[in-house]
Design brief:
- There is one protein chain.
- By secondary structure, the chain is mainly alpha-helical.
- 41% of the residues lie in helices and 8% in strands.
């Protein structure tokens, strides 16, 4: 018999994974997924809230600078993005909040103001609003 006609046989001790081994791995992966996925989803929502808080406070700082130079509260974010006399905007365009709503600027009594993100529900005056007036939002 020449060498090309020989059939190579694997030793019997070289097998694949057993069904039980595969099932154990699947169960372990399932358990890990049930522990990790809720934490990742919750972290995403918390990141949106934190971004909105940061944006609201940055906009409020820009409004303060605008009020010092113009002696009035801006009516919109667009006014803050227009260049001042030195050619610099008070703030770069921040766009919309993480839930795709416009940020709102309210002129309050006694020269005060408030910057608000409408939060996930998009309705003003609800508990999920993020305001520059509240130091610790819910």
């Amino acid at each position: 018999m020449n060498e090309s006609n020989r059939v190579r046989r694997l030793p019997l001790d070289q097998g694949g994974f057993t069904l039980i081994e595969i099932m154990v791995v699947i169960v372990i992966l399932g358990l890990l997924a049930t522990l990790v996925v809720p934490n990742v989803i919750g972290a995403s929502e918390e990141a949106k809230v934190q971004k909105a808080r940061t944006d609201v406070h940055n906009i409020a700082d820009a409004v303060r600078m605008y009020k010092i130079r113009n002696n009035k509260t801006p009516n919109s974010i667009e006014e803050l993005t227009q260049p001042d006399s030195k050619g610099k905007p008070f703030i770069e365009d921040v766009g919309k909040d993480p839930w795709d709503h416009e940020y709102v600027i309210h002129d309050l009594d006694r020269g005060d103001f408030e910057v608000i993100s409408l939060g996930p529900d998009g309705n003003e005056g609800t508990d999920d609003d993020i305001s520059s007036k509240r130091s610790k939002d819910k």
